[in-house]
Write a structure and sequence with these properties.
The chain has 6 helices and 2 strands; from the N terminus they run αββααααα. By secondary structure, it is mainly alpha-helical. The chain has one domain: Arp2/3 complex 21 kDa subunit ARPC3 (Orthogonal Bundle). A two-stranded antiparallel ribbon has the order 1-2. Helix 4 packs antiparallel against helix 5. The longest helix is centred in the last third of the chain and has 38 residues. The chain is globular.
Length: about 180
Amino acid sequence: MKLSLENEKRISSTKLVVTVGIFSAIAFVLQLLVPYKVSGFLDIEISDLPPLILSLAYGPLYGVLAEFIKNLLHCLVTSTGFVGELANFTINGVLCLVSGLVYKYHKSFKGAIVALLCGVAAMVIAGAFANRFIMLPLYMQGADSKTYIDIILTIIVPFNIARGLILSLITCLVYKKVSKVIK
């Protein structure tokens, strides 16, 4: 009996590692297929969908890990000097972390909606702070504080709200079907 439980745990953990790897690879490929840039530096993409699905299916750690792997892979083909990948990981890692944590304790369709909305709110706040104190100063060295705030309030916050809501809607539409396959 004990041997059987150990084998089941090993198989289960192996399956989870493979699933995280596959979802990270899918996210990376989706990140390469950027259809549209906003304001020259914000990408409309759906590469955060696989990590978000992992966060709901297996917990926030796995979604954040997939975000990390996706952005680490993207560093190999980037032209942003890693600032874009840091921004992507920070902001979308928060989305996965918060959404996964809330859903972990409220596993229902209503719980998923609340979890995703909490994740979007946290992502927008994290994005505003990360852009104010890290990303924009790295991209726009020497700009004044008012310029940073104007960009954050007029471009970054609305963009992150829209992108987060779109990702959440797509997640709500596909999560149940995908979770049945990966669990």
